[in-house]
């Protein structure tokens, strides 16, 4: 399965979600290729740090430009091909979506993040012209943990105006363990923060269910 994290917005947690999902699917015993399609190379750097740890490793590669053929080849060899792309419109983002099974767009619950939706529409429609089977979902991420905060509710109301982007029915919250784990090449799956771990595991299983019903 090819799973691509993308957005035309930077800093929304694409890389963080890509590497945490990779770690969770590895934990479950799946083989995982992690494709870093961002020249910044954050996901690939994380994989290199991870080699120092006694944990399961993804097959990590960096590939920019036209990545569709590489992804299709990796998809023959690995259970999951997880693709991270940069926070801007790019050839890797567009060519990845030409072969992806699932595209996930993380959104922070703020107006500036939601403002990118019209631009994303054009991108998604373009990809679907090539790739009928592409399923695209939005995911609220970096959401406040404070239950009294109204930003999540407001964002959900605004996102409901865009039915073309179906929202995954779970939320990733702003938790320090997501930041701390990266430094060591770890993920929240290997850390003590049970809440963060549960969030990633719920997301991972929802993605698997989506594929079963596709
Ligand atoms: N759920 C979270 N909780 C706390 N911090 C987070 C979370 N998700 C991401 N971060 C932090 O937010 C910052 C941006 O995350 P990340 O680099 O994953 O976003 P990105 O969308 O990949 O950004 P870019 O567009 O620059 O590639 C990082 O410092 C990361 O550690
Ligand atoms: Mg990134």
TrEMBL record:
Gene3D superfamilies: P-loop containing nucleotide triphosphate hydrolases. It comes from the Bacteria. It holds the Pfam family MipZ. InterPro entries: DNA_Partitioning_ATPase, MipZ, P-loop_NTPase. This is CobQ/CobB/MinD/ParA nucleotide binding domain-containing protein.
């Amino acid at each position: 399965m090819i799973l691509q994290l993308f957005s035309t917005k930077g800093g929304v947690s694409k890389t963080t979600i890509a590497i945490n999902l990779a770690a969770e699917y590895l934990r479950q015993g799946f083989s995982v290729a992690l494709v870093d399609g961002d020249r910044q190379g954050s996901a690939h750097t994380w994989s290199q740090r991870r080699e120092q740890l006694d944990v399961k490793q993804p097959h990590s590669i960096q590939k920019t430009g036209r990545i569709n053929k590489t992804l299709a080849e990796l998809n023959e060899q690995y259970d999951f091909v997880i693709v991270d792309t940069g926070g801007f419109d790019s050839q890797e983002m567009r060519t990845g979506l030409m072969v992806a099974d699932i595209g996930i767009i993380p959104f922070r619950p703020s107006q500036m993040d939601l403002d990118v939706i019209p631009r994303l529409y054009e991108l998604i429609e373009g990809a679907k012209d090539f790739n009928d089977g592409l399923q695209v979902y939005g995911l609220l991420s970096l959401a406040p943990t404070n239950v009294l905060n109204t930003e999540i509710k407001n964002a959900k109301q605004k996102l409901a105006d865009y039915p073309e982007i179906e929202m995954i029915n779970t939320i990733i919250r702003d938790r320090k363990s997501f930041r701390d784990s990266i430094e060591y090449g770890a993920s929240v799956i290997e850390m003590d923060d049970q809440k963060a771990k549960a969030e990633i595991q719920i997301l991972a299983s929802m993605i698997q269910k989506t594929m079963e019903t596709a």
